[in-house]
Every structure is written in structure tokens, then in C-alpha cells.
What does this fold into?
Amino acid sequence: MSGHLGPLVSALADGALDPPERAAAEAHLATCEACRRELRAAEAVRAALGGLPAVDPPAWFLPAVLAGGPQPQRHRTRRLRFGVANVAATAAAWLVVVAVTGPAPAPVAAPDLAGLLAAHRQATSGSLEAGAPDGGMVAPSRLGASFTLAGHRDLDGLTQAVYRSGDRWLSVFAQPGQLDPDALPDGAEPVAVGADPAWALDGGRVLLVDRDDAVLVLVAGPEASAVPLPPDVVVAGPPDGILDRLVDAGAGLLRTFSLGG
Amino acid sequence: MTAPASQPTPPTRVPTWEDVARSHGRFIYTVAYRLTGDHDDAQDLVQEVLLRVRRGLETYEPGSLEGWLSRITTNAFLDEVRRRRRRPLEVVPDLPDQVLATDEEPDAALARTRLPEDLQRALLALPPDYRAAVVLADVVGLDYAQVAEALHIPPGTVRSRIHRGRARLREVLAS
It folds into this structure.
């Protein structure tokens, strides 16, 4: 054998040499301190990598995939992904998280609220239950204990997810871009949702969250959904308003999943 | 997905993607994270793996579920790397054979940097093809023949990628 062992050192450490190769390599090792050191190094790297711990996905991830099916990667420069949806156990805990990744896109002024309300109304007005609604809604699938992801669709760059719990409906829209605070509709009131700037609109039925690279809009309420909420759900105003529930849920989830909170 | 009628179902049954997600979701995620070093990318990769399982395009060999899944995961990873580069990865960046740059005992340098984050960072410093080979061999624990089969490369290439990959890891950890 000429020179040093080279790649054979790792193969030797891994027991991947056939007997003649191995005999020759061991003969060389007996006379070569440099290769003995290389062998120890290869073994040390292997041991270090082999000792790496398992990596847990975020708690919501696998349940969300199991519920909604694996989604194909979107081969776009901007990727919008629904990382998870809700885990609401009670009406007081409406939890919705939307994970958004990708480079920061161009600023947008403000979402077209009338358009979003119309989309919410249309999505929740009955066609979902048939399983083959218009507008690209996907089949209903269950997420979480009490709230269900009824469907989601892509509205020309705007992603909508619709959730229901009994008669209660909630839509979450995600639109790439950054919010221009000067372009907010009249009556928008700043509220606290984790670390993200957020505003309440329309008597608390609409919550707008400005994340780094997308604007999230949460829409709930009977006027917007065409499906009456049960009488114990108050639509506007603290302390029982849907806004509060959304704010609490959003803040809690942002903390839970370290999403900007 | 149903198995061909001629095959007995339970022992050789191709696992459904749901089975795989439930029983090996954490395993796939670990491999995906070691390859990508990023949780968002790992989540994308896991979904891609489950899609490939669901589509039944990957030949399943009963008995080596982890080997099968790690093969799908590394190939999905390398496909994504190639896609992002928009050109084939025919030319693998060559890593030179490492010849003993230091007199220090190799274990000593490694022992100082045994933190998982350090190792993960060092893994990311490897070219993707080397990283795939090292992850399959050292993180997953596949033997060289399995690595060769998973990556569709000859055994000699497996040897050199693992060896040079480990040497490069040491270099990064020592720097």
C-alpha cells in the first residue's frame, strides 16, 4: 500500500472493508501514526454524529399533516403555508396559527376588507358541506378537538382557511406583503397580539395582524358568516367579544409556538 | 393504496403515509432537520416524503422502514437542492482529502464542540451530496451498501464522500 490510507480510514472505522483490504489497512496502521490519528478522528466524528439527539417537530406539525394530508411544496419565490390550525378546546380559546415563510414581499396597502368579508360569507354559506365547493375549496378535514378546518383555498395569491365549530365560523386570510398603517380603514383600533402589530376592525369581528412578510386577517361573526353564532357568543366589545377571544388565542399561540411573540 | 393481489398483505404491505407519519414522523423530521438545518425546510421536506410515500412511487423493501424512509428523505432533499439551483448537481464540489493539519488529538477538538448546534452548523458547511452521505451513515446508521443504493452512487464514491465529509466536519469544528 502506497502513501496513507485516505478514504479507507473511514471505511475501516465503519467496518466497510473487505478482508484483504482490511488486512492491508491494518498492516499500514501498525506503522503509521498519522493514519492511526485519522482513524481515531473518523471514529470521533461518527460517534459525535451518532449521538445527536432526535429532533422533535413542533407539536402541531404532525397532527396538522395527518389532518390535512401532506401538501406539495409550492415552488414560488413567496411561500405561504398553513403551518397549523387551531386546537381550540372551548369557545373561549379560538386558536389559529398561520406560519408564513419566504423573503419579504412588496408592501401592500391594506387588505380589501369588503372582498375578504365576501369571501368569508361565500365560503361559509353552505357549499362547504357538500365537499365539492367552488373556488378551489379542498375537502373538509378535522383539526383539533372542537374546531375543524372546513377547507382552504387560494384566492389569487390570497390564502383563505375556514374553520367551524358547530355553528361558529372563522376565516383566516393570509396575504403576502407588509401593511401600510396609513392605509388602514377608519375605525381601526390597535390591539396587542404577541409582538406583531395588530388592529381590530368592524366592531371586533375582524382582526388584522401585520407579520413580517404577510398580513393575516381573522374574520368571525354572524354578519360576515351568514351562519348565526350561538347566543352565548357576543360579537362585539369586551369582555366577551370575539375580538378578545381571537386576541387571547392569537397571543397564546404566538407565545406557544414562538411565532413573533 | 392497495397491495397487488398476489402478495400477502400484512407482512409486506406498503405502509400508508398515515402509518409512516404516525410511527416514523419524528424519525423523518430528524433526518430532514439534519439535512436542512431549518425547521421550515424540514417541515416542507417531511411533507414531500409523505407525498412520495402516498404516491407509491418509491420501491418499498419490507424490513427496512427507516432505511427506506431515509432514502426517500435524502433524495427529496437533493431534488430540492437541485431545483433551487436550477441546474443538475452533476459536478459535486470536490473536497480534498484531509491530511492531518494538526497535531492535536482529534477527540480533543471534537470534545470541545460536542454541542448539537455546533455539529449541525458543521453539517451545513458540507456540500449537500457529502452531507447526505454523512447523515445517512453517521446519523441514521446505514451501512455503505445502503448509502450507495440510497444515493445511487458507487461504493467507492460512498467511501470518499463519507471520509472527506467527516474530515471537513472536523475542520469546521476546529476552526
Notes: The first strand of chain A starts at residue 79 and ends at 81. Chain A has a mean pLDDT of 61.
